[in-house]
Amino acid sequence: MTRKRYILLVLILGALTAIGPFSIDMYLPGFPAIAKSLHTTTARVSLSLSGFFIGISAGQLLYGPLLDRFGRKNPLYVGLILYIAASVGCFFVNTIEQLIVLRFIQAVGSCAAGVASMAMVRDIFPVKDNAKVFALLILILGVSPMIAPTVGGYVTAAFEWQYIFVILAGIAVIVLMAVIFLLPESHQPDPSHSLKPRPIINSFWTVIKHPQFYTYAICGAIGFSGLFAYLAASPFVFMDVYGVSSKVYGWIFALLSVGFIGSSQVNGMLTRSYKSEQIVNVTLPAMVLLTLVFIAGSALNVFGIYGTILMIFLILCCVGITYPNTSALSLAPFSKNAGTAAALMGALQMAFGTLVSIVVSMFKSRSTIPMAGLMATAALLALLILIIGRRNIVQPVEATDQVGVGAH
């Protein structure tokens, strides 16, 4: 594969991966405006974010078998078209209930892009390159939190919050054209993958019972849910508790994203000298320590806005290094069932993320304690899962190994 082709494929897969997060980040600065427009509260508006997470979690389980049965591109077309239609629908909503439902549908469409991109990394690139490619996808993914909230803040201030969804629909149309004309089909349709409930359940069971998968997929998903605690709580924390404007919030969000993006690229350098397992063994305990400091400082009210930004920045650095390695280790044992494995991994991430975002919306405390507490809980549970689960991994398939083991 030529370098130019390599870069093109990474860019397209990165754009697919970014659709879901872009859909989350862009409308966050518009929460107060949405609440005012739809005659509801910011907490109620956050339920549209939870609805989005639920849609992604459920949808990924749907697309996994479809991607293995019909190839990668046809289900991807369906998902992107559904996403575009739901985005246009969000422009016309009159109630918060309508927005929640359409955001759910939008998420079901967007997760086709996320699952397909993860599976195609496993299809197209050697297993030894997977962690590096995942880190590059995070670099592209990082453009979303750097640009989306800032754009969303200015769009909300200059026009109306509804136009955010027009922009999202336009982005999806561009990505759809790139998929149609530039992205190759990486997995031919396989009729042996039945869509009947029993074989689908058996396929998922084959994946989830693999010790390496359930250890790193669950560990990674729980650890990653700390990011969702931040996403769901940050509009309230920065705009309500600290009183910043939607524009300033967008810039804070962009600044914090540098930690997530930059650390993921540091990970690319680390994987040249260390195995993914070794990296996770360092970054996850570090995340536990940082989150405990964060919750202690929040309880003592010693941080303020700048201290809060610093702590979140450092925690996101740990997430940015841990996530690509747990993802690569989760998928490393699979070749035949890569789509199913990617879907299940993504569903686990979104399931825990959804739970955390719903819990965040239940707190009424005017402080950072709920966010810090959930981030600390996620980090501690992830470390516990890693310690317990890796005892059951007899022959680990390292993410830098040359050949993955097919799951049959």
Automatic annotation (TrEMBL):
One of its GO terms (biological process) is xenobiotic detoxification by transmembrane export across the plasma membrane. Pfam families: MFS_1. One of its GO terms (cellular component) is plasma membrane. It is found in: Cell membrane. The keyword Signal does not apply. Keywords: Cell membrane, Membrane, Transmembrane, Transmembrane helix, Transport. InterPro entries: Efflux_drug-R_Bcr/CmlA, MFS, MFS_dom, MFS_trans_sf. One of its GO terms (molecular function) is xenobiotic transmembrane transporter activity. Residues 6-391 form the Major facilitator superfamily (MFS) profile domain. CDD domains: MFS_MdfA_MDR_like. It is a multi-pass membrane protein. The chain crosses the membrane at residues 45-64, 76-94, 100-121, 133-155, 161-183, 213-233, 248-267, 279-297, 303-323, 343-363, 369-388. Belongs to the major facilitator superfamily. Bcr/CmlA family. This is Bcr/CflA family drug resistance efflux transporter. The lineage of its organism: Bacteria, Pseudomonadati, Bacteroidota, Sphingobacteriia, Sphingobacteriales.
